[in-house]
Amino acid sequence: MKSTKTLDNKGFTLIEVLIAVFVLAIVVVPLLHSFVSSHRINGKSKQYMRATTLAQDEMEIFEREKIENLIDPTKYDYLDKNGDPIQPGSDGSYVFVREGIDNNSGSNVSKFDVVVTLDPERSTNTSRYYDTNTKELFYMNTIASSDSAVHVQAIRTASNLKGYDDTIYEYFAANKNTSGLGSTWGTDEFNRNLARRIKVKIYQENNGLNIATIVKVTYEYVLCKDNIMPPAYQTYTEESIIFNNSAQSVGEDGKLPELKSVYLFYAPRYKGYTAPCSYEWNLNGETNTYKTNEEWIVIDNEAELPVDIYIVRQDIFKDGSNTEIDPVPLNYQPRIEIHDGIDGEGHTIGHYFTNLNINQPPATPEGKVIGAQIDFSSLKNNANTSKTYSNSEAVDTIQPKPLNGAGSAQAQEKDRIYTMKVEVYTHGVDWKNDSSIAPIVKMTGSKLE
């Protein structure tokens, strides 16, 4: 019997195809949507990362650069919001703008605008920077121990109850004459009756290999009252070496590092003087006349080096306070004596700066500008021939001049700390006129000048 086999050529029905398409759509459409969303998120993430990197770069620039460099068009291309050169606002704030910063993609979407705002926050005394900004402070150049000599006299504050001279007063009190008038004296009496001279000497010595430069600071004290101190304790001298380059390594030229600057930060003495008394004191063959109501500072540039010499009066705080400055009396007028050489143009070889006004009366009842008498009688030319100047002529010998804080860049009012805000926008959006447009990235920090 012969059998036959029938082949089944039956295909998918329309309904089956539609069901398959429907199922595929359910699966594929969300996947496509996720792909598109992922692409968009990745694009935004890359843009955010680029904007963040840009903001960090800008912040680093502002942290390391001075404002005068940032506003210099030859160094940076910042402008204000109107496209004009940058000027400070009435409150001391600055706004720096750079537009169309490209990340080399060539796309407008990938370009950014950067806005950096510096605010000194000095408008009210509730600001955290109020006590730091717009105050007249001594402008410190970079001080390097290899080429600068620095002496800072300790001052009495609420947190540092013993200043430099307090130790000296205690020394005299401990060694006073225990019989007669001296037995009743305490440290306050010695404070009022001691005369003091501060000497800064710049000299050189041959150490056998090189010529070493040395700077020495000496404090000399003498009591103007008789029968208070035993003769052995009538005077007191304390000295310290604040610079000696003999221990430093020589340079490629075989010479030791040169001294460039000398800084004397001293604490003035002006409290509670009794009637001033004079005292002739012979020390090491040198006779000096002291008065207890005078501040006597001597700068002896024996080596005749062309160094910058800074004489800086430190303000001191009221007793028991570390915020209130004790006003300097109007009759405080220190005597500054300068021993130096003079160059061919008649100017001192050393360059002198101070925050005291020279040969000028005090400017305000608060004593903010304090006068000083200056003596140039020891000036000599390169042939070691002494020259005598009148007061006005002597001051004119100084280069640079004037020798005072009010007219010198060595003491100035300026903002020294700012709040820094860095904002990065997509280039092309109208962030200047539409405050509702938020930056892609916003960072905050501080800038120190």
Structure notes:
The protein is built from 5 helices and 21 strands. The chain is α/β, with parallel strands linked by helices and 449 residues long. The chain has 2 domains: 14-122 and 415-448, no CATH class; 135-414, no CATH class. The strands form 6 sheets. Strands 7-6-5-11-13-17-16 form a 7-stranded mixed β-sheet. Strand 9 and strand 10 (286-291) form a beta hairpin. Helix 3 crosses helix 4.
Give a concise summary:
This protein is 18% helix and 30% strand. It has 449 residues and is of the alpha/beta class.
Distance between the termini: 112 Å
Instruction: Give the overall silhouette.
Output: elongated
How large a portion of the residues is in β-strands, by DSSP E?
25-35%
Overall pLDDT confidence: 78
Number of β-strand runs: 21
Helical proportion, percent range: 10-25%
Structural class: alpha/beta
Give the strand line-up of the largest sheet: 7-6-5-11-13-17-16
Query: What is the N-to-C order of secondary-structure elements (H for helix, E for strand)?
Result: HHEEEEHHEEEEEEEEEEEEEEHEEE
Features:
21 strands; 449 residues; alpha/beta; 30% strand; elongated; 7-stranded mixed beta sheet; 4-stranded antiparallel beta sheet
Describe the secondary structure blueprint for this structure.
Blueprint: H1 14-64, H2 67-70, E1 94-101, E2 112-119, E3 135-138, E4 148-152, H3 164-174, H4 187-193, E5 194-206, E6 211-223, E7 235-244, E8 261-266, E9 278-283, E10 286-291, E11 295-301, E12 308-313, E13 335-339, E14 341-342, E15 351-354, E16 357-358, E17 371-375, E18 380-381, H5 391-396, E19 411-414, E20 417-426, E21 441-448
Parallel strand pairs: 4-8, 5-11, 8-12, 11-13, 12-15, 13-17, 14-18, 16-17
Antiparallel strand pairs: 1-2, 2-20, 3-19, 5-6, 6-7, 9-10, 20-21
